[in-house]
Fold each of these.
Amino acid sequence: MSAPAIIRTEGLTRTFGSVRAVDGLDLEIPSGTVFGFLGPNGAGKTTTIRLLLGLLEPTGGRATVLGFDTRADGGSIREQSGALLEHHGLYERLSAEDNLTFYARVWRIGGEARAARIRALLQPLGLWERRGEPVGRWSRGMKQKLAVARALLHKPSLLFLDEPTAGLDPVAAATLRDELGTLVQREGVTVFLTTHNLVEAERLCSRVAVIKQGRLLAVGHPDELKASRATRAEITGRGFNEAMLALLRGRPGVVRAQLQNGRIVLELAESAETAPLVGLIVQSGGLVEEVRKDKGSLEDVFLTLMEEEP
Amino acid sequence: MIGDVLTVAWKEWRELFQLGGSHRGGRFSLVLLIGVFGVFLPLQSGAEWVQSPATVFYWGWVPLMLVGSAVADSFAGERERHTLETLLASRLPDRAILLGKMLAAVAYGWGLVIVMLALSLLTVNIAARSGAWLMFPWRFAVGAPLLALLGAGLAATAGVLVSLRAPTVRQAAQTLNVGILLLMFVPALGIQVLPESWKAQMGAWTLAIGIDGLLWVAAGLLALVDLSLLAAAFARFRRARLVLD
């Protein structure tokens, strides 16, 4: 039996003047999922989070989150959710402990439970020893970790993370990603994660949706999405040119042929054989050194979707 | 609800007392004001400072100067420092956020006035060295804190209203300062240009109701303005609009 939907949207739409930031979004997110919401900048990811938190009213359609209608019961949704939004939202003049104490008080966590919870969250993130320092003195990576701790403070059923690793250097991003994965698993929380970092999505998410200009393009498990796309062949060598690409494009089973950094990258239909295509390249004067064939990454799926859709 | 209001006020206070760096100028102004109203003016006035019925009216507008800078930061500061959306995404009800910010500002302004009053009483007594301890008459002891509370309420409600829409703290503070200056000088200048017959009538009316009556009229008017501004702030607080701002 599948888990009940924690988020359900039906034709969810939000316009700003003539711009449709979210356009007829239909989603069903089961409880216990780490759901990745992927899209380029300006795709409508942040607006969707704001709609789901009941901070913005939809102009069309509807959404229920945790069983509450976003229009009527935004307060109940926010009561049971945690959020790390576009900005970390920390009070930089205050210490880490004060920041967490404030939000613990907001969620009515008092006394010893508050102190124990703060310690339980800060220690594994390596922030406990520095809890008395004003947050303004911290690095961006540390602030993001603290913001994650704040979002999990009240043990929410649902956690919204809006590009949590954006703006971090690769090391800090990888560290946060690892810690986020561990924390989310430990807390058993459903996560709605927006990102345009596809490695992050592939590492953390059990289901992903791809959105562009407010419209949903694809949704499913990352492996399902990869399997639904063409096979990818990458041919390394020398002497490749546009004429070869034109020949390749004319062959049955070749969905796409491109030159990328001196390599030929082919997208092939399931039935297509690679060997005759390699032969064609050799006959045309190309020198083939290596052929790699795989199903492609989530990034390939994402880029293909972005190119296909107007 | 009360717990939520106190939580927001707690956070505001923590932030207010963690000020440093660029806010040191604000601290200097604060010390200067405490010095003027707690030491300098009482020294100049002597026993009059405690006994004159007119001084009670000072205390209605002293909080306006104290609360302005703190309350300008309330929403504009959160917006400027990108903390507002996270606060709005929490479980706190709209009214708790608004009232918590107002409470923090009122408590700050009113608390400082009480400190100034106590300091001024001490200054006058030390300077007088009369042997007998000079005390505020009952009218002053009740009226000054009451007017100070209502004055702080005026600054807090007006300040929050301005701060809700101001894009920056600086702009909120400027708008608020202009408003406070107009509030102080327009009535004073307005009275000057009134026809003599009106002035005479107002003088007669003032004499008729006396200082006590005037105190209650002033308190009533301030309370009415405070409540109107509070209602306006409630009406103007819209989560969706604040998120999009």
Note: The longest strand of chain A covers residues 5-16.
Amino acid sequence: MTREEIYDKLNEVFQDVFDDEDITVNDSTVAADVDGWDSLEHINLIVAVERCFGIKFTMGETTGLKNVGEMVDRIIAHLG
Amino acid sequence: MSLVSALFLAFVAAVLLLYYVLPKSVRLWVVLAASLAFAGFLGFYTLLFVLVSGVLCYVGGLLAGPSKSNALRNVATVVTVVINIALLCCIKYYNVLGLAAERLNLLFGATETANTFFLYAVPVGMSFYVLQTSGYILDCRWEKIAPEKNFFKVLLFSTYFPQLMSGPMNTYANLSAEFEKAKSVRFSFERICDGAVRVAWGFFKKLVIAERAAMPVNLIFADHQTFTGLYVPIGVFFFAIQLYTDFSGCMDVVIGVSHMLGIELPENFNCPFFSKTVKEYWRRWHITLGGWLRDYLMYPLLKSEPLIKLGDWSKAKFGKKNGKKVPTYVALFVLWFAVGYWHGGLWNYVIGSGILHFIYIVLGMIFEPAFKNIRPKIGADKLYFRIFQSVRTFILMLSGFVFFRSATVMDAVDMYAAIFRRGGAALNWANFSASGLNLSNLIVLIIAVLLVAAVDAYKYVPSEDDQPKSMIAFLRSKGIVVLWAAFMVLLIATLVFGMYGLGYDSGSFIYARI
């Protein structure tokens, strides 16, 4: 799966979790850029991303991701 | 050894001297020796406890690391963390167990002092320690860090003396990085000066404010049969001042001492009483505890299969929007129960520092969507509404402090009943000042609290680049003379107005007992 394809799916996940069809994310997107992305919604997002890509983030990844770019890097690593 | 004592200052001075005079290669050995000596000062059993727990933490980390089989890693993690938490539970229930043991002793004809060994044997202030060391084992299991092979590094992490009694809680990744950095830190007058101002600020908060605010608190909470009506909210208000300046003052001392060693610790408070919501309050009050429970308790719970399945079920039952909140509420309940339990293991803590906050936060989450719609109509962006939000949040916090300060749940309920009870002491100055808070004490208290509020207000207003602000950095920017003047004012004010010496027991911080 290419980075672009991952972003296509990831945008859908973000739009679904945060209930906003206008959200598009990129490498530098952080929690502060998305309305409603707080510590509680973060875990809903993580679980939704895991389901979408059929992967499991470690707890280190769950709490340590700095931005969406890092999330995509980890998704690529998990997809192998 | 109390953190607000001449003995502790002398201890820190000796450690600093050895730390900067001896070669840098032995610097961390100095800190480790100081940390074990500090634990020894707290009592033989405390030293024994941290050594045993340090070994447990070290072995647990090694076995939970990635080089072993998953089954062994899971067993090792569960066993060592459970033993660690069990130790915490024993500490928390020491008064319950102690009471039971005392009653048993009395049955056999012993005197009330017969059980002092049990109370003496239990280390105080170890809740922070136990959570931090459990965090290390979990970090190894979750591969956030590689297990440390050097036992003394783990022991240094777990016993680091400034934060041993009261936090702030830290992760191994952060603290070990600070220790590495400290190896090459050069002596700097500026560093010592900044740290000394921070320590003086902590002493000022504790000895000038907290100990003074405690006077009406002790009087009103001890006798709410007499001190009824408005005395109750007044007592709780003073307790809020006492608790904040006591705990944040303690953190100022801890962070200031550590800064002098070139080891930076995370902040634990960020102007909590300016918070607009209860949720925001908990992002600003005891920050490291909230972060620990979020990362090590709530997130794993929400990622667990049972809660994911519960989410699927509740989404099908209540719709996507409402249904996804159900597992969050369950995890929040567990988290807040843990917060309350952690604060003391008794129901008044579980309610006052836990369940009550869970209810406030969940109600906030439920009504938030409706409130979003009416917000523009009621002028929610106006200053008056902003002030209303902070006052409302503060009052909600006070409602929990009633339980926190009371000895039992029934005592807290009676405290609430006392608001409406008639026939108590008349609300006048003569009765109020019976607590010892006379006019001159009250004036000192008001001025000191206004000073703390002004410093908090300075920090609360965001800087242009949105970076955290520091009053010490601000004073330094005005010149070293200004910073030294601030230090001297704090020192003299604490020496003149501080409540210490004969007749005062200002030795222990409220949170050092947790």
Note: Chain B has three domains: 6-186, 188-269+436-514, 274-427.
